[in-house]
Amino acid sequence: MSSKPRTQAVLLLTAYLGKPSTSDPRPLSPTEWGRFEVWLKDRALSPESLLQEAPEEVLTDCTDAAITLDRVRFLLDRAGALGLALERWERAGLWVATHYDADYPERLRSKLKTDSPPVLFGCGQRSLLNQRAIAVVGSRDAGQEDLAFATRLGAEAALQGFSVVSGGARGVDEAAMMGALEREGSAVGVLADNLLRTATSSKYRKALMARNLVLVSSFYPEVGFDVGNAMARNKYIYCLSRAAVVVSCTNGKGGTWNGAIENLRKNRVPLWVKDSSVKESGNQTLVARGAKRLPEGQVQLSALAAEEPTALELFDVGASPEGQASRLADVGPDEDNK
Fold first, then answer.
1. Sign of the CA dihedral 57, 72, 17, 208?
2. The whole model's pTM is what?
3. 30-42 and 5-14 helices, crossing angle to 10°
4. Would the pLDDT of 135 be above 50?
5. The dihedral formed by the CA atoms of 314, 315, 316 and 318, expressed in degrees to the nearest 10
């Protein structure tokens, strides 16, 4: 864990360090931090200025009604709690990346600008956050056909040199990530809850040790599941990718639906949707709202991301797992993705 004063200041101002009390001031949200960061920069100040000088001297002309002196003082006074938390997270192999770190994901910075998360907690190979990737998302309760499809798509992403970005939840997310990892590809899991528990579970231990996986979260690493957090992290999944594929979603509700609608509204990355015969599916509605229908048969993943395809980038999404496995074995894994 970093002991840099700047990292400490950003963590103190923006991160929860334990279970919050309803009476305590909240850490600055990404949007609030974005405004405050601009304010600091305009005055040639840096976050650590608040550790080196009295906050009331730094904030003399801060007129942001949400960023009050009392709130900043309370957040900065948590240094003891921060030290204990950092020690606990470091023992579990977690790391911290802030806006100011060179390996902070550039796509988050460029796509979200001042709304990008000021802090990312993570475990695993940080450089994967800046590799080209395809997002694969879908329902937690997807049927076997959709799960098999997600697994094959993850495997094909590995073959073509793409990482798979997903939310790490059971169902489609996990199937796509494991499909890539089982073929010696790489994956990025953007978690909404309990990074600490997930990072130390046996499920991902092999991939983390092989440096083929990175798990990240913008939330307190020990936080439980929260619907708001799950919705908020959707944009990070999309922005870390070159294109996104919705395998399955429920019409009009749920995290996958809301994330896809937000992406269409913000026009962040190309959105592709698998055909679905499920009555309650929202896939066709997404197409009506501007998503593109994923072609049947051969799919060029670079074409989904509006990139120049290469000779190998042909994937029969309807192929059986046995046939797909045979093809992957014949071609072999992409060396850059190991």
1. negative
2. 0.88
3. 140
4. yes
5. -160
